[in-house]
Amino acid sequence: MLSFIEIENKFKTKVILSNIGASIYDIKTVDKDGFQESILYTTKSKDDFVTERSYLGKTIGRTGGRISNSKFTLNGKEYTIKSEDPNGLHGGLDGVSYKEFDYKKIDTEEYIEVNFSRLSPNLESGYPGDLNLNVIYRLYKNVNKLTVSYLGKTNEDTLVNLSNHSYFNLSGNAKNNILDQELFIDASKMERIEKLIPQEIVSCGTIYSFKEMHKIGDYLNDKEIIDNTNGYDFPYIFDNKEEYKIVLHDSKSKRSLKIKTTYPVVVIYTCNYTGDEIMNNDKKMTPYYAICLECMYHPNTINSPFLKDKKDILRASELYNETVEYYFEVEND
Prior knowledge:
By secondary structure, the chain is mainly beta. It has one domain (4-330): Beta-galactosidase, Chain A, domain 5 (Distorted Sandwich). Helices cover 4% and strands 41% of the residues. The protein has two helices and 25 strands. The protein has helices spanning 46-51, 223-229; strands spanning 4-8, 14-18, 23-30, 36-38, 59-60, 71-74, 77-80, 102-107, 111-120, 131-140, 145-154, 158-159, 163-164, 167-168, 182-185, 187-194, 197-203, 214-215, 233-238, 246-249, 255-261, 265-269, 291-296, 313-314, 320-330. The strands form six sheets. Strands 8-9-10-11-25-21-20-15-18 form a nine-stranded antiparallel beta sheet, with no helix packed on it. Strands 14-23-22-19-16-17 form a six-stranded antiparallel beta sheet, with no helix packed on it. β16 (187-194) and β17 (197-203) form a beta hairpin. It is globular and about 60 Å long.
């Protein structure tokens, strides 16, 4: 049964979750004048949120990102991901993003928790092993933050690389695009992309780097970027030198989003390709009206010879346990 669950704290931060894809339908925060508005680019209709295929706010997996040629070999056996995309996008056709999860809500002195759970059966979308998955959201009461934790256990070695695919826009109800919003990423290195698949680790050049905060639109229209991915769509590797791994800021609303995470990588995606849904600004989905900040392991790790530590392999004896923390701030006039 389709469910939407609303939780809110004393800072007037409201989070609307859905059991379809253990997802975030919307997040509303106040601006500099105290007006509560959406900071996500999401569908106006909840019905459209269930049927859209841009992964708006969804948990992506079993493996986020692309798996080259929709194939991987694990323990000497080849597996094929069921996918319309030639490179097994976001877990394939039968991935977790649009599956119905069970959930329970817990209210404590410190936070409000919504715990989504689901068994992904053996060979669902082509992945081996039964995967017991929990996606746990906590909205804190005395600190203005939302955390999402991913827990997983399998009875057979498998691939797992989970993330959230929310489309952020701090302007409020997506009244403006994101090109003037500023971004910081604690990363000096990234993965070079060719035909949407990572090829090697390289230093961030001027047009790619966000190590010094600057506007997202400063270099987005550079021919090299447009010809390759039509906007930003690249994995950045954290330096782990800063407390906050990512900071997004809007100078007009004075909102900031700050992110901490246990993951080593963030894939940033600037809504380069769109669908036909009517969004929460009453317009059709439009390029560059949002940025996805997908914290995860390196995408396609298993098929990348330049990556030696295959973190996307979850062994039957191990627990998958990763967390992303979202902090919401506003500068008052």
